[in-house]
Structures are given as C-alpha cells and as structure tokens.
Amino acid sequence: MKFGYIAVIIFSIYFLLPLYILVMIAFSPAKYTIGSLYPPLTFKAFTLNNLIYAFTQYDFLHPFIKSLSVATLVGIMGLALGIPAGYGLSRLPGRIAYPILVLLLITNMIPGIVVAIPISAEFIRLHLFDTIPGLALVQELITLPLATFIIQGTFSAIPREIEYQARIDGASTLSYFKNVLIPSALPGIVSAFLISWMFSWDEFTYAVIISPIHPTLPVEIYLNITRGNELAAVAFSLVFTIPVIILTLFLQKYLKGEYLAGGVKA
Amino acid sequence: MSKLNQNLRYLFFTIPAIIYIGVFAFYPSFDAIYLSFLNNAGHFTLNNYKELFYFNIYGTILNTIIVTVGALLIQLFLGLGIASILTREFRGKKAFSTLAIIPMGVATIVAAITFSFIFQTTGGYANSFLHFLHLPTVNWYANTWISLLVVMISDSWKNTPIVTLILLSGMMSIPKDLYYAAALDGAGPIRRFIHITLPNLKSFIAIALIIRGVSEFNIFALPLVLIGYHPPLLTTLAYELYSTTTIYLSAAAAVILLAFISVLIFVNIKIGGRR
C-alpha cells in the first residue's frame, strides 16, 4: 500500500493545486502574483485589499442577485415538472418509461449553443431576452433530466402498497402526494432542488447568449477577465465557488455515477 | 381501473415535462436547422454552409475531435487510477474521496480562469514551476497543438471526478470473489486489473466515454477563456459568428456541431439498448 499512498498524495495535490493558486492570487499583493514574471509558488504576504477593491469598484451585487434568482427559479421549476414526471415514470412499466427516459437523456446531450442561438432570436420577439424567467426556462433543460432521474429514483423506493392503502382509505391523488409521497421522498426532492440550483448557478453557455446585458455571475466573471480586471475576476470567483463546494460535499451521496450517466441504471 | 387506463394516468403525469422538452429542446434544434438554410432576405440558400469554408470549418472540426479524444484519454486514465484507489480500504479514504469530488463543485468558468493563470506565457504558475526546477519555460499558445493540450488538461481537472464516479460504481459491482480466486491462482495486482477489472468494466467505460464525449464536443466556456477563438472549436466558432456576423451563419456552424452530436446520441442509444 506504500505505492498507493504516494498515488493518493499526488492526486490530492492535483485536485487542490488550482484552488490553492486561486486563493493565493486572491489574498496576495498583486506584485507577488499577476504582477510577477515568475510568481512565487508559496504565500509571500497576506492582504485583503484585492477583495475590498474588487467589491467596491466593480458591480458584484446585481450579477449575484441575478444568479441567485435564476437558480432559485430553475430549482422550483425543476420540482414543478420533475415531481409529476418522476412519479409517472416510477409507476409506468419499463417499456413505456424507458423511451421517455431516453428522451430526457437526449435533451441533456443537445448542444447548448444549438438551442441557445434560435431561442435568443425568439426571446427578443417575446421580450424574454435578458430576463430572469427567460434564462431560467432555458437552463431548466440541463437540470430537468437530472431532477427527474433523482426524484424517480426516490419514488421507486416507496412501496406501491402504501399508495393502494391510501386509496382504499379514500385519499385523493392530491392528498396522497401531499401527505404520503412527498414527505417520504423529501431527501431526494430537496437534493433534486439543490442540484438544479447548483447547475444553474454554474451555467455559462446559455447565460452568455440569452442574458448578456444583465449578466449572471459566471458571465460577469468572464467579462471582467476579458476587460483585464483580473483581480476582480479572481475575487468574484472565490466568493462564487465557496457555496458550491460546500453544496457539492453535502450532496455527495446524490452525485452518483448512475445519475450522472443520465440516470439509466447500468 | 384497467391496466391500460392506469398506465395512461401515469403517462399523463409526465406530459408537462415532455411538452417542456419539445418546446425548449426539439423545436429550437429544428429551428436552428431551418435558420441555417436562410439568407438575410429569408430565402432558401446553401451559402451559409459554403461560407463556413472561409472560416476553416475542416480545421475547426479536427480541433474539436482532437480535444475530445485527448481529454477523454486523460480522464479515463486518471479516472481508472483514482477509482482503483477508492475501491480499497485505507486510512484517510474518506478525506481522499471528498477531495476527489471537489473539482465538480468548481464552476467551469472559475476553473477556466484559474488555469488561465497557470498557463500564462509570462507570469504563469506552470512556467514558474518549470523555472523553479531550472527547466526551460514554455509558450503555451505557440501553436495549435499546445493550445489544445492546455484546454484538454484544464478540462480534465474539472471533469475527471465524473468519470471516476461512473467507473467507481462499475468497480463496486464486480464480485470480490473473482479477485480472491485470481489472487489464489497467483495473479498480481496488474494482471488482476487487466484480466478482471477491465473486462468487467467495459460497459461502464463505454458509458463514461459516451457521456463525456458528448460534453467534450460541446466544450465552450473553457476554450473561450483559455484560447479565445484561436484555434477555433465548433462551439467557439458558432459563438464568434453569432456575435459578429448573422444568426443564419452561426446556426450553420451550430448545425454541424449538432450533426456530430446526433451520431454520438445514436451510438449511446444503441449501447443503452443493449444493456
């Protein structure tokens, strides 16, 4: 196992190195980082000035609010569409459910840029271009399949006998959903919401095409780097990344191979 | 309630999602194909596709394929290594599996910006490291090959965790008895890996390759930040045309991308159907 530990250490450095560099640039005086021909690989000095400068000189608040609103809306729509779809798919026999799952899988594969170009033209006509609901509607494409797969998985784990029992006791579909199905699948549903939220928060391709004038945070970071405001881009990146890393670790259980492979169980 | 009626009732629940997909995925895809055959006056034309040759469309396709294949190889290699480690029990395994998932939580744009600091030609950390070792420094954007390599490396950092997770779920499904039997027969770790792990992992490797292959073909934010429009990939070319020329011309570039992805989707369904 000695050889194994060496591999573990090398891989750990590989995973952490870019984040270490990001933190170093954010908290070091520029002369030791972006102002240096051969920037030192270790911390030389600590400063908060980069962050203070970035947050006072550049607009962080509006992109932040836009990202937050879009991501939340994407999460809510994911549940509104994903809960019924997940329920239907978990109860349908395989030969009907499978083609629908494949359809969802295909959606996940259609290139963002192919969809975004014609949609941007339509959205200008419909006054949805550059709006929060417009962007959320398009980003939902990425998250809906994932949300549906996760919810379908958790619903499948709930025995059908409970549903039959509830019907015998006179429960309507709505009250069965409200009182039995959703409460017992709550961890899966919350995860579906959070994963949708997270994917929208990170999303770039649709955002840069559908919402370029009032950008989301990822687009704002990109615009800053193209304008040469490197320290602002780094500062925003850092603040932008921390909540997502925490969420990722929290959701580790649900970021399983089979969901990421499109939910089709291998 | 009859079985058929019941199935119809369940199917009814999936309709909102299906309608949504129809409106926001399939309609725009066909719209893109339609737009790609129009000129500014709204008449049918093949000129958009002809004009793509001025933008070196063959080279662009080739670049996209090179990035896809290269990045897949790196991710598969690293993913196999990391997943093999994670199937074993050792002290610190939990911490390591947490570390191994962290890049997934880093937004693509953030990964792109971080790697742009690493691979800067002057003042970059990669060159800093080479300089520290007294090795010659490298111009990371000197030619197409090395630029594409920078994209592959940066993308692999972000996406190896996904490949690892898929391969890990495959490795977990291989019965432990096979390894015990092989070990008793005197097979060492490398031979066990080649004769047991790899053959049993085939379908998972296929899934990982196809899922990641589609994403690699669509790679956009990372090359945009790292190499801009030169050398171009199908996505960056479509975006450049979208922001500088007509929507019709950019749609034509996007449709070429869609054609390649359609082939991959077809292969995926074939493989998926066999499982």
TrEMBL record, chain A:
SUPFAM superfamilies: MetI-like. One of its GO terms (cellular component) is plasma membrane. Its main location: membrane. The keyword Disulfide bond does not apply. It comes from the Archaea. Pfam families: BPD_transp_1 (PF00528). It is found in: Cell membrane. Gene3D superfamilies: MetI-like (1.10.3720.10). The keyword Coiled coil does not apply. Residues 64-251 form the ABC transmembrane type-1 domain. Keywords: Cell membrane, Membrane, Sugar transport, Transmembrane, Transmembrane helix, Transport. GO terms for biological process: transmembrane transport. The chain crosses the membrane at residues 6-25, 68-89, 96-121, 141-159, 180-199, 231-251. It is a multi-pass membrane protein. InterPro entries: BP-dep_ABC_trans_perm (IPR050901), MetI-like (IPR000515), MetI-like_sf (IPR035906). Belongs to the binding-protein-dependent transport system permease family. MalFG subfamily. This is ABC transporter permease subunit.
